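User: Hi! I'm a student and our assignment asks us to look at how structure tokens line up with a sequence. Could you show me two examples?

Assistant: Happy to help. In each example below, the sequence comes first and the structure tokens follow. Example one:
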Amino acid sequence: LPAGPNREPRSALRRAGLRVALVSGDGRTATGAVAAALGIEAIAEATPVEKRAAVERLQAAGRRVLFAGDGVNDAPALGQADVGVAMGRGTDVTLESADAVLVRDDLRLVSELVLRSRRAHRVVRQNVFWAFFYNAVAVPLAMAGLLHPIVAAAAMAASSLFVGGNSLRLGRARPRRPGAGAPGGPPLSCRRRTDR
């Protein structure tokens, strides 16, 4: 967490529909004070193995887990989580274990990551629908000779243009909150983890 009990990241995460908890290797007093100020659950003095076990318990209960961390001791939990998010100044092993990297150490970006991911998922579903819709309608009509090949080709081109244009909308997405996309480079960096 950033220095001092800042409620804004927690509120943004809750607005995104996430349950927030703190799993820390710090002492009970410091962790308890931060958790109490933020109004969240906390586990203190957690070892790397215990952090991973906490993620596994949530997953066994049917929850999808996003874990954010910046230290070597967070790497096992980042690797176990459904989505591991490393903070920008994290260690090399943390950055390698994560699915996404927040270029700036700002927890508000976690909610932005979730919102952008959900939007991308929506766009992918729309694109798949339109691609299958074209194939389900135009291809049988063309095979039956009810659709002229030139019209079928034009419909296929239009379908491809729609899918491409729909995907380009993601690049124009702007942060929903002031300050989340402040100048200084892209706040999010994502990559596909190949060990899954």
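Example two works the same way, sequence first and then tokens:
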Amino acid sequence: KEASVDVKATKEQAEEALQIASAAEAILIHDAEGFEGAGGVLLEVKDRKKQLEARRKLITKPMMQAKKEVDELFKAPIASLTRAENSLKRAIGRYVEDIEKQQRELIVEAQEAHDSGEESEDVREKLVLATEKTPPKVQGVSMRTVTKFEIVDVSALPKHLMKPDEVKIRAMVNSGLDVPGVRTWTEKSVSARPQA
């Protein structure tokens, strides 16, 4: 059985958290006493955050489980339809490319026939055939030409198209290596664990 959530208490808890957060963000530390006080507030902030997270998960866990089940129900049929869609698009694209190729060949033949002095009627027939070689129209289906690319030589790319791999840079910096073109520095990272 799912635990119920007291909506009123949750709203009150959220309001208190907003007030605590606002007060905490205004804290300035000037001495040891202020430092100790800020540490205490930090622990309170962490504890409130943990409580709110627990309440949020109590509410969202059943929703997430339901979403997971719904996603699983639709996953296979949607994947199958996506594969079918892509297959049909490729087949239609190949058909249109074939038609356009035949059309270009007929135009070349007509031009060659004209250049060799063939009868104007024969040339005209070839041009008519070329213009008739068009794919049929289907309502809702359209074609557009898309330019594609493939990188064949990374070293030949212009420098402004290179993207640094920050994960690898971080690993090198964390292992103490100097990386040309990278500035490193340190900052204090504070962690807090509320006492149980």
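Here is something you could point out in your write-up. Residues 32-115 form the longest helix (84 residues).
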